[in-house]
Amino acid sequence: MQLTVLGTATPYPLPGKPCSGYLLQGSGLRGSGSQQPGATAAPSTSIWIDAGTGTLAELQRFTRLEDLDAIWISHRHADHTADLLVAYYALRHSSLRPAAKIRVIGPEALADRLAEFLGPDAVRGLHEVFAFTEMSGWGETVVGGLELAWGPVAHGVPAFALTVSDGSSAITYSGDTAPCTSLVEMAEESATLLCEVGYSRQALGDEAVHHTPEDAARTAAAAGVETIILTHLADDLDPADAVRRVHDAFAGAIILAEPGHAFVV
């Protein structure tokens, strides 16, 4: 699989740095969890993971919107969903002609949240261009040649982490979350953890909703992943300092996500 970073900024986009968004592409295997003799490669699959502000433009550097197999949304905050609004305009009011509705997998009532901005007349239109699958707990599905599994994480609102497997490798994406057992459990089968670092310092009390660099290191170590990709860094966190702080508690490879960078996972 190949992961391309579309954006990482929080809580608002910066020049050359959109908010959260990623493109995951892979072939995978039909009917097999491993590469057995006679197994056939599935057609290439493209999934837009989180649609933060500015990511639609970046997505089109690598694939066409109408060629997506699915869109997966971790939670309803605007810095992870706002470009679904302009994606809707593109699919409904431009010359784009997708062969079928684009599947959108997201938290419950995501379509209603979008319609609150677009207006009540948009509810029908949203369902004409998107096929919504609602997440309300643990779940899984297959998109093209990729297996997706998700589970709830701790962000103060309905929020989910995601693990994607192509039959030979797997990657886990934290979404936005405080450290939690469910994220560790989801990442245990993955070699790579794409982990948010939304805090530069620990929140006071029990109100944490993001990882610090030290939290990210502990999560990666507990899950046993080989590589951690740091993303969605707090705006007051120096990237080099974040890498150093993770290195103090995690012995694996550490990568800093930057828009436009692509990784084989």
Structure description:
- By secondary structure, this protein is of the alpha/beta class.
- The protein has a single domain, classed as Ribonuclease Z/Hydroxyacylglutathione hydrolase-like (Metallo-beta-lactamase, Chain A, 4-Layer Sandwich).
- Helices cover 24% and strands 28% of the residues.
- The protein is built from eight helices and 14 strands.
- The protein has helices spanning 55-59, 78-81, 83-93, 110-118, 122-129, 181-187, 213-223, 239-247, and strands at 2-7, 21-26, 45-51, 70-72, 102-107, 130-135, 139-143, 146-152, 160-165, 170-173, 192-196, 227-231, 253-256, 262-264.
- The strands form two sheets. A seven-stranded mixed β-sheet has the order 6-5-4-3-2-1-14. Strands 7-8-9-10-11-12-13 form a seven-stranded mixed β-sheet, covered by helices on one side.
- Helix 7 links the parallel strand 11 (192-196) and strand 12 (227-231).
- Helix 4 (110-118) packs across helix 5 (122-129).
- The longest helix has 11 residues, at 83-93.
- The radius of gyration is 18 Å and the shape is globular.
- Residues 29-42 have low confidence and may be disordered.
- Pfam families: Lactamase_B_2.
- This is Ribonuclease BN (tRNA processing enzyme).
Strand content: 25-35%
For the record, what CATH class applies? Answer: Alpha Beta
Major sheet details = 7 strands, mixed
Looking at CATH, which topology would you report?
Metallo-beta-lactamase, Chain A
Helix-and-strand structural type: alpha/beta
Which regions contain 5 or more consecutive residues with pLDDT less than 50? Answer: 29-42
Shape: globular
What is the count of DSSP helices, taking H or I runs of 4+ residues?
A: 8
Number of domains: 1
- Percent range of helical residues: 10-25%
Give the helices and strands as they follow along the chain: EEEHEHHEHHEEEEEHEHEHEE
Protein name: Ribonuclease BN (tRNA processing enzyme)
InterPro entries: Metallo-B-lactamas, RibonucZ/Hydroxyglut_hydro
Organism: Subtercola frigoramans
Pfam families: Lactamase_B_2 (PF12706)
